[in-house]
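Re: the 286-residue chain
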Amino acid sequence: MALNADESGRLTGLLSEHAERVTQRWTEIATASLRGRLSQAELRRQVQELHRAMVEAARVGGFDLESESAGELRAVLAELSRGRARQGFTATETAVSVYALKDVLLELMEASEGAASLRDYVAFTSLVDQMGLFTFESFVRTREGLIADQAEQLLELSTPVVKIWEGVVAVPLVGTLDSARAQVVMERLLQTLVDTGSPYAIIDITGVPAVDTQVAQHILKTVVAARLMGADCIISGIRPQIAQTIVALGIEFGDIATKASLADALRHVLRLSGAASARRHPRREF
């Protein structure tokens, strides 16, 4: 809802004439709703910024939150929402800090008489409702972004690529391997192969609870990508239950080396690296 020029003028006059009282009471009411989780000095600063931005937006006449003239007010509301989301406040607590202005406006206007005052109050509080909804939407977008960032960080932490020794890296997988995680595994493995120049990679699935066709396809794609980088892959952690499932599903690993445990895979790599070293440096007989 937008205010017309007359309503905007009366709102500007009300907020400007009683600026100190508005910010003081607004801060007090909002502080009570936050139960001491934010200092009064910090909350007062936020309220003063909102008050100033509202006065500037209303001065141009025809106050509309979606208009270009209200751009600074939207920016202040969005920054308030982002800050509260990062500090762990709820969307309701953030919006209530804005809605507290309704009580302040009521206190200022309750002494006025006539239908004009009632109409103004309804118009002003509708504008405050818009501000609260904008704050709520900004808060939700910020929180969704934070959750997405945290999920990505957890995904990276859950797919470590470790260097066992010179020329050998390992990827110990724990938990379900879905498409998103498989992509991260592939990217991190390939980057590690490039960084270390390792010719061998062990993909350990001991911690993967179950292997179905989709999981097997993800593993095979990772092995193929590693081979394109010139690295041989060994899959370890093939427990009896997983082996039976793989056979029942008809999954073929082809010529990819598979081992029951990580220790078996390491011994296999030692034999391969020893044979490769012997071929590069044959013993001379005298």
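The longest strand covers residues 200-207.
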